[in-house]
Amino acid sequence: MRTTTKNRWPATAVAATAGLVLAGCSLGTGDQDDAAGGSAEGGSSKEVVVATHDSWNMSKQVLRDFEQQTGYDLTIQPAGDAGALTNKLVLTKGSPIADAVYGIDNTFASRAVDEGVLTDFTPKTNPGSAYEPQDAEAAAQLTPVDYSDVCVNVDDVWFKEHDLAPPTSFEDLADPAYDGLFVTPAPSTSSPGLAFLAATVAEYGEDGWQDYWQRLVDNDVKVTAGWSDAYQVDFTAGGGSGDRPIVLSYASSPPFTIPEGETKPTTSALLDTCFRQVEYAAVLDGAANPEGAQAFVDFLGSRELQEALPDEMYVFPVDPEATLPDLWAKYAVPADDPATLPESEIAAHRSQWLEEWADIAQ
Amino acid sequence: MGTAALAVVPLAVLGVFFVLPVAGMVGRGFWTDGGFDPSASLEVLTRSRTHRVLWFTLWSSTVATLVTLALGLPLTFVLYRLRVPGRSAARAFVLMPFVLPTVVVGVAFRTLLTPSGPLGFLHLDGTAAAIIAAMVFFNLAVVVRTVGVLWENLDPRREQAAAALGASPWQVLRTVTLPALAPAIVASASIVFLFCATAFGLVLTLGGLRYATVETEIYLLTTQFLDLRAAAALSVLQLLVVTGLLYAAHVTRSRREHAVERADVRSTLRPARRTDLAAVSTAALALAFVATPIAALVVGSLRVGDGWGLDHYRALDGHEAGSTAALLVPVTEALSNSWRVAVDATTLAMVLGCLVAVLVSRRGRSRAERRGLAVLDGVFMLPLGVSAVTLGFGFLITLDRPPLDLRTSPLLVPIAQAMVALPLVVRTLTPVLRSIDPRQREAAESLGASPWRVLRTVDLPVVWRPLLAATGFAFAVSLGEFGATSFLARPEAPTMPVLIYELVSRPGADNYGMALAASVVLGLVTVVIMGLVERLRLGTAGAF
Amino acid sequence: MPTSRGLEVRDATVRFDRAVAVDDVTLSLDSGHVLAVLGPSGCGKSTLLRAIAGIEELTAGTVCFDGRDLAGVPTHKRGFALMFQDGQLFPHQSVAGNVGYALRVRGRSRSEQRVRVDELLDLVGLPGYGERMPATLSGGERQRVALARALAVRPRLLLLDEPLSALDRGLRERLAADLRGILAEAGTTAILVTHDQEEAFAVADRMAVMRAGRVVQSGSLSEVWRAPVDGEVASFLGYATVLRGGPARTVLAAGGAHGDGNGDAEVALRRSALRCADDGPLRGRVLEARATPEVTRLRVDVDGVGEVDAVAGQDADVSVGHDVRLMVDLTRAAVLS
Which residues belong to any copy of the ABC transporter domain (chain C) (predicted)? Predict the structure, then answer.
């Protein structure tokens, strides 16, 4: 009896495993997706390849509309975070991995422009002209698509429970009243982290930010590697059971903290602490399909795509006419007067800032 | 002659997908402004920061490797030698960390360790101990699987003879069992060390930036600063350290490998006794150690608002209307994407791995041949020890011309995963193949068996289970999207780790809960598959 | 017998899941004796040996040595030594390393180890083999090394699991004699488990016969040999023929025994119990004849008995198909009760 029941197992297991393996028909052999081919050669002239960052997300419907309107086949190529994306483009200069790029932000824009990996392009409609780079050469190559304000967020419920007024400014963050309450991702490993560092540079100046950061460190600021860490683990209103009610996040974060069945978020963004990150699109120099790339950059400015941005990628559209989702309109308010720095200044000083920052904060 | 022919395919693959990209990246760093100028690169090696980073890499990886062995060996003993209930489930379970994306594990660990977390009283958040704990968490399976396949075949009578001669259980372990297991232990230790030394996501997340390893330095230098000179110097440093380690491992191992008389697996299992108490409790501790972060994931995934429920799991089908959570694709689609890539990667890793294992387990006839085989053996370990960033970026700059314009090919991801899985396959199979007495093969040949038949009738019955273990391993590596793949152009079809990464990178309790739920699903699928594979028994090998 | 010296196994039972490997076995062995446990493979004799060594746990019963119950005493504290059929030498240690193993684990000094190892290698006839590795030895040499290793610390009890079975016949006979000499010289108490009665007779002075987990007979060699408890044991001990009922009565009568007349007479005959003699009481026809250096071995169809083995002197003129007369020598037979 025992042996028969035992012996049935292998047979079942073999059958099940074989079935599963067969079901997972190999990518290498019989794949009918048009993902193969890549950019330059191999692909048809109808194919347009877009390099982007890992946060890319767009509804299939919108992308289908692009393909129908233009007749191109779209291939999206996520290539790491904004830094990795930019550096990959620099390294593959002259033999680009794609036709167009979307997702270079104003902290990395100068590197891409200076290295000459992009080419000039003026889109048919440019709803985001207000967000164009300050530098003329960069403005000729880059088309603004969306922006997000990196701001300090606070857990209002926590502050109410602890009978403490939430902070409102950079200065407050260094106030001993808020000792040990602030958590931020590091500028060296996180793009919002870098934005916050840039915001402090803009606020305190080239020679003053170091002193401010020293005061933050003295006030027990916690530095994590990434945004997920800071928000999901250490922030009191995040996913876990954090113990810090002040976190660096986005102006668009509060709507996500509306408890089920209620209408108001439990967190809010401090709009006087924001740095504006603008994301650009561009046509790559040496693109196999420059027309396709141009069509895609044009499409990024379309009303349809602009209005899809908040829900799909959690960013504000650059088109001032675009309708925001209800929740956004109510609770995700961009800053009136966010800090900005010229792209060229960020590019010129990035390494030096990060080194100085590391000396202070690590 | 035959050796050379067999070696061609794996060596060609290694050359194209490892040597070429790494050489390309290092070359970019050394050739600046049109001239060969390594001095600018080598300057980085004199910085005191580099020394600090190298020192931390070495000691943290060493400690993590030792702890992994200290927990892993008793666990292996209990799971492969004792007749304890639930052992095959436990064997599958320890593999679960292997497939969990680093970002989620980092978050899970930190959720436990953060000052207000359940283990906050340990004050480990942001310490080197937390980094080491996570490394151990990930790598326990390497020790359990690599050593387990040899241990379960070890004839217990030798240990019994020693015990009857008056050796205490500890003395038996030290003087009989461990020497017999030495090849597998050294092999798994070197793999664990390499995995630890090249981990960067964990180090960044858990070290709170206070700790840097050679790998995190290369990552920052390449992806953030675009300082290719310094990165090239560090990559070369990494290669040198890894080569040194592999040489040391080879020397230790080659002195220990003997033909072992193997016993039938079923006869090596025995019930637990009082003297096993220490081993059983260490094994329980190890399992609890693996289970704790996983439990944190499960608990987190079931937490809905202030209550509990399966809402996050239901939301994974991607059809929930009015949710603020936006899924790239339904979880089923991501799973099937992961599955397809994993099948490709596993097939490739097994084909290459078997070729290499058969090759390097031969005993060379001449000194030169033996040395050649040893070098070959080590060369296939190198991909584990070299920065994933260097490799990933190297792909982009070297594989950009026909006939090898593979930069954005969907094949690149499975190939890169196969390069990582390959050493695991080789290390799992080689000690077992070497333990086959060559006279058995000679006997079979003399009886008229063709080389293929010798393989089938002498080697296959013995390596059948290790082969399954290796397959499971390769599969898990692929499902978890290890190392290099995060720096490659991703396939357009999002896999599970991509989906999870997306979810955890967004604000909102729903997204966080769904990220955890998706991780649990990925882990469970893995455990079930591994459980099925465990069920495949030696007896069925006859059918092949 | 609370003060007995030696091994005392009482009511020992070892059960694996539902299968009973050792079934209520009681045995005793005085100090200085060598006991052979003889039985077919699968009879539970190896399990009994392992239970005595403490490797298998007893389901019921006790194992005592020198009056002390060994329950709860782990293998390595019993002061025994175990030697397997295939030696189980440690492949990573030299011959000297293997032989000196038990001394090393007891922390004896290096010089003491060296002296004792040389002594033991002399004893087993392998002087100068210390530096060799096990892989370079022949089968017989390995068993000698295993024996030397087992004897190193003068175990209170030596447990031998088919120590000679893996060797070829000539080597086995030589080594069996050596083994007996070595055990006697060292005064070692030993248990030898084997399925080969020749090995048992060559080495042991006491014997226990096991069948299906039970000890069916035990005693001194001659006790067991002279009076096997049943036909099966008799065959196993090497009796050539076992007869029952009418044929048995015929043979007994021919040998001059006074049958008590009941129906279930049983007799075990060695080959030499029936011998050609012109005036023998039995008559039969020769079916096979084969000359050996000492006697001619015959297969004879005996009237009223059936086919049996018999012998003839070398000078006798017997050939296949001839009729012969046979006499019965009951000192070469065992009457079974």
Answer: 7-237
